[in-house]
Amino acid sequence: MVRIMATGVFDILHPGHLHFLRESKKLGDELVVIVARDSVAEKMKRKPFIPENIRLSMVSALKPVDMAILGLEGNIYDILNLVKPDIVALGYDQEFDETKIIEEAKKRGITLKVVRISKYSDSEFNGTRKIIKMLKEKEIDQSSGH
Amino acid sequence: MVRIMATGVFDILHPGHLHFLRESKKLGDELVVIVARDSVAEKMKRKPFIPENIRLSMVSALKPVDMAILGLEGNIYDILNLVKPDIVALGYDQEFDETKIIEEAKKRGITLKVVRISKYSDSEFNGTRKIIKMLKEKEIDQSSGH
Fold it and tell me: Which residues pair with A71 in a beta bridge?
């Protein structure tokens, strides 16, 4: 059984997330998704719009996802002890160093591969920031139009 | 095999949608979801923020959903001819008249039940409008806070 681990904030679900999760799942048998804690997301990127428990329940409901859990608050690599993945799937824009992940896994007695998933570019709906921007523009259109 | 049909706009997916779809699925074996066309949603409610093809792909990716298809543009009851459901599941706030659905089905030679799904109220994230409002407020917080 090949277990894949993918991580992310998954703030407002969009087709880019689906692409990432589907492609990740194809790498093996079981996809475990780590949904970043609000506190961690805020430190690494920005405060999520949607709180962690809601983000977790939405990700859990997606077909490619076998299990979704909230991340840890401390050392981001400690989740490897729990999940023990065979493969770590990274999104095209996730700023993780592949070598560092492999090293941190080795320290924990885990041998894994890191696979970078291609960008999904078939849509303008491939980023939470873009969606927010678009929603705001549309709302302006709608309030002036009706 | 009991086929359930549920319909909606599913503009920005939230836990209220998941609740509706999970409860609908529990009514039988196969859940077919009709995702409203942009043009129809605009007439009945408001113009969706997310275009129909993206809404369709997101709904299709949810675990309770066996099949999702775009609605028809004309008579909203004509979809019954295609889906031939045993049960039509209605959201707690969907403004359909149960008797009218049963009548329109009968005209088409279809006998069905209509079941009203309970409200999901365990979260503030149970409506697209609310989410948009909340996103705008949060964005203001974030831009002033950092």
Answer: none
